[in-house]
Amino acid sequence: MTCQARSSYITSEILWGYRFTPVLTLEDGFYEVDYNSFHETYETNTPVYSAKELAEMASRAELPLTWSVSSKLDQHAELETEEEEKSQEEQNERNGDVANLENE
């Protein structure tokens, strides 16, 4: 038998760190449903924060404490300057190799 279910919850209905009490038991080869405990919940050992919140906190921890747009722009300019210097050094090495080959 195919079954489809659809649920919608409001904020006050969501309990973080709780599970539903099992309602199915196997007795004498048959499953029995205890509808009296259908809405009962019990608390479980659950982290205070969700996985998304933990990831956001970890990413924020990697940022400097005094972050600003100007400091990010300065960092970007420094990286560009370093890349240009490396590129210039590589070009000089290649030019030097060509000059050495021509002299030989």
Automatic annotation (TrEMBL):
Region annotated Disordered, chain positions: 74-104
Annotated coiled-coil segments of the chain: none
Gene Ontology CC: one annotated term: plasma membrane
Record localization: Membrane
Reaction it catalyzes: K(+)(in) = K(+)(out)
Domain (Inward rectifier potassium channel C-terminal): residue spans on this chain: 1-58
Membrane topology: Multi-pass membrane protein
Gene Ontology terms, MF aspect: G-protein activated inward rectifier potassium channel activity
Domain of life assignment: Eukaryota
A UniProt-annotated Pfam family: IRK_C
The entry's keywords: Ion channel, Ion transport, Membrane, Phosphoprotein, Potassium, Potassium transport, Transmembrane, Transmembrane helix, Transport, Voltage-gated channel
InterPro entries in the record: Ig_E-set, IRK_C, K_chnl_inward-rec_Kir, K_chnl_inward-rec_Kir3.2, K_chnl_inward-rec_Kir_cyto
Gene Ontology biological process terms from the UniProt entry: potassium ion import across plasma membrane; regulation of monoatomic ion transmembrane transport
Stated family: Belongs to the inward rectifier-type potassium channel (TC 1.A.2.1) family. KCNJ6 subfamily.
Protein name: G protein-activated inward rectifier potassium channel 2
Gene: Kcnj6_1
